[in-house]
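The records we work with from here on pair a chain with its fold. These numbers are not coordinates but entries in a learned vocabulary of local backbone shapes. To see the layout at work, look at the sequence and tokens printed below:
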Amino acid sequence: MTKTDRSGFVAIVVAVIGAGGVVAAAAISAALTSSDEPSRPTPSQVTGSPPSDCHPKIKIKTRPGQKISGPDGIRLTGTACGLGDEYGWLFDFDPYDGYYYRAGEGPVVTENGPWSFHDAPIGDPGDRGKLYSLTLVRASKECSDAILRQSPDGAGNVKYRAFPKGCSIDASITVFETWA
């Protein structure tokens, strides 16, 4: 595309933005910046190191704010990158009692790339109409070992008010509990 051709497209982009068509403008802008040259791999693609936008290391893609039935739970999906020897543990945070309840018997994210986990049940019958935060914790080996060593309480729950050393929250979404 010549410089003269681009100026005509710039006028179209300005007109589209003025009309509120931000998505269309982005598509036109992307077409303007594309090249006929083959793409070259970035250094992270060549060396296998994580991309620079790899933080947080674990992300949840599932839409927040969904109404869920506690017994049925919800399927969570996401991506992980640059984990090294870290794992992702899922906890259901009950803001009414202030505890994070471990979901599952082990880490839900064990390697880089896409991940998926069905979290059920969430809460109990007394939690109808409450909000819960589904929280993904990135755990070092030290943190993972501490989580695995934690004994369940009398109700069978492994729960925390504060996480062990080496744990950090990478992602969280809120869901509305219906317990139906």
